[in-house]
């Protein structure tokens, strides 16, 4: 018991030390960058506000949400704090400005996170379709994967075709160089990641998993995650020369050997440093590689940070 208690104290000291590293980095370097003071007048329609005729897909810094459909997961108060990564519904996230969704499903078609489940994936699809019907030029990247350790929902690829068919932007390397206006009226890039073997067909509009990449590490230490994100991002090609999306997640993950295991308390260690990360991308000369930037519990400020950088790129300032 004494050894376990000592280990937990050491883990808490490590967390405090890493929080101090990020705090001091922000105090020393600041979080300003080209576009950091720019804010969209309407987050629900921020792509429209940037002019779809001028915005190329590979110029966009896409605000994303991690474990997007977990606002009602598990049992309120009892199990929900251990798996909930978003407090807003998928529709509300899109209205707030999120444009990349991370959806996990299991065999029966329910959304899940680890061992906990929530509503049917139909709820997600309905939220996406509602948002698309209320806007004209907003493009969404919808990633749907079978959760690790679960089986694929039967016939799921066909289900996605039937539900989103006329809205789907078909898998095509040329999409990256096109403007939003050139892609319309299609609105959704759907990346399907089954656990089983998925052989993409030329006729399929769904995008295979290789088109959305990341380098997720399992840690609750904020500076460790921050530095890992920067290292892996710096190894990517610039956005204008690659034909895949690359995601950086401004999140940390609860660990079983630490007494603090509620998602919100843990992710708050890094949550407020999205702008710092972008500023450091400029300082370390890899901002031209930043593309999808995701977070737990998305905020308006995080959306503005991404949209501001997108605006700066369009203006030739970044």
Automatic annotation (TrEMBL):
Domain Phosphatidylinositol-specific phospholipase C X: 51-193
Protein name: Phosphatidylinositol-specific phospholipase C X domain-containing protein
Native source species: Deinandra increscens subsp. villosa
InterPro entries: PI-PLC_domain, PLC-like_Pdiesterase_TIM-brl, PLipase_C_PInositol-sp_X_dom
One Pfam family of this chain: PI-PLC-X
One GO MF term attached to the UniProt entry: phosphoric diester hydrolase activity
GO biological process: lipid metabolic process
């Amino acid at each position: 018991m004494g050894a376990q208690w000592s280990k937990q104290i050491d883990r808490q000291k490590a967390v405090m030390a890493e929080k101090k590293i990020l705090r001091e980095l922000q105090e020393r370097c600041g979080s300003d960058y080209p576009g950091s003071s720019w804010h969209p007048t309407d987050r629900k329609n921020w792509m429209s506000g940037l002019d779809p005729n001028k915005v190329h897909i590979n110029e966009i810094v896409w605000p994303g949400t991690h474990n997007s459909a977990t606002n009602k997961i598990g049992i309120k108060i009892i199990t929900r704090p251990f798996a909930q990564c978003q407090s807003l519904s998928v529709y509300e996230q899109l209205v707030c400005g999120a444009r990349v969704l991370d959806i996990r499903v299991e065999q029966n078609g329910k959304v899940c996170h680890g061992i906990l489940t929530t509503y049917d994936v139909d709820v997600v699809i309905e939220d996406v379709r509602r948002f698309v019907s209320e806007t004209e030029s907003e493009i969404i990247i919808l990633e749907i994967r079978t959760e690790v350790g679960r089986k694929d929902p039967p016939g799921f690829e066909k289900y996605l075709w039937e539900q989103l068919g006329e809205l789907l932007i078909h898998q095509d390397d040329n999409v990256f160089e096109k403007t939003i206006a050139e892609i319309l009226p299609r609105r959704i890039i759907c990346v399907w990641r089954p656990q089983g073997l998925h052989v993409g067909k030329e006729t399929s509009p769904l995008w295979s998993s290789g088109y959305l990449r990341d380098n997720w590490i399992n840690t609750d230490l904020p500076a460790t995650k921050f530095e890992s994100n920067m290292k892996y991002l710096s190894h990517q090609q610039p956005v204008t020369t690659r034909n895949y999306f690359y995601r950086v997640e401004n999140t940390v993950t609860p660990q079983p050997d630490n007494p603090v295991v509620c998602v919100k308390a843990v992710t708050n260690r890094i949550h407020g440093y999205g702008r710092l990360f972008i500023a450091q991308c400029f300082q370390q000369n890899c901002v031209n590689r930043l593309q999808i930037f995701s977070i737990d519990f998305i905020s308006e400020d995080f959306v503005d940070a991404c949209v501001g950088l997108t605006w700066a790129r369009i203006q030739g300032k970044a």
